[in-house]
Design a protein that fits this description.
Layout: H1 3-20, H2 26-36, H3 44-56, H4 58-68, H5 79-94, H6 100-114, H7 119-144
Helix pairs in contact: 1-2, 1-3, 1-5, 2-3, 3-5, 4-5, 5-6, 5-7, 6-7
Length: 145
C-alpha cells in the first residue's frame, strides 16, 4: 500500500475544497486525484478516510493548528501549508494507529513537494508542537492510571 500517494491525493482534494469553497462530492474528487497520481486501488480507501476524517473534524483541527501557530491566523497561511497541516493534524489527533512522528515526517515531505521554499520549516514548527502536546496528554493519562 502506498500511503504517501494516498496522502498526496488527500492533500489535493483538501486543497481544491479549500480553494473553491465548494462542498464537493469527495468520493468523485478522491477518485479523480487517485487516478491522476496512479494510486493503487488498495490505497484509495486510506485517501478517502483521510479526506472524510479531516473534513468531519475540521473545526477542531483548525482550532488546534491556530493554538500552536503563534502570530499566524489560518487565513494568512499559504493554502498548501494550511491543508498539509490539517491533514497531518487529523492523523495526529484521530489516527491512533499512526505514530505522530510518522504523520509529522510525511507532512514535511508533502510541504517540500507541494509548498513554497519555507513551507517545510513552517509546517514542522507548528506540527512538532501538536505532536508534543498529544504525546504529553497521552503520557499524563498513563501516569494518572
Amino acid at each position: 500500500m502506498s500511503r504517501r500517494l494516498a496522502r498526496e491525493t488527500a492533500l489535493q482534494v483538501l486543497f481544491q475544497r479549500d480553494l473553491t469553497k465548494e462542498t464537493l462530492i469527495t468520493a468523485e474528487i478522491v477518485e479523480h486525484w487517485a487516478t491522476e497520481f496512479v494510486v493503487p486501488e488498495v490505497s484509495r480507501p486510506f485517501a478517502q478516510g483521510l479526506v472524510d476524517g479531516t473534513i468531519a473534524h475540521l473545526d477542531e483541527i483548525d482550532q488546534t493548528i491556530a493554538s500552536f501557530a503563534q502570530d499566524w491566523t489560518l487565513s494568512r497561511m499559504a493554502n498548501v501549508d494550511r491543508n498539509v497541516m490539517r491533514l497531518a493534524t487529523y492523523e495526529i489527533l484521530f489516527c491512533t494507529d499512526i505514530p505522530g512522528r510518522v504523520s509529522l515526517n510525511e507532512a514535511i515531505e508533502l510541504a517540500k513537494r507541494f509548498g513554497g521554499e519555507e513551507s517545510a520549516k513552517f509546517v514542522n514548527g507548528i506540527l512538532d508542537r501538536v505532536v508534543d502536546s498529544v504525546t504529553k496528554t497521552e503520557r499524563k493519562g498513563v501516569e494518572g492510571d
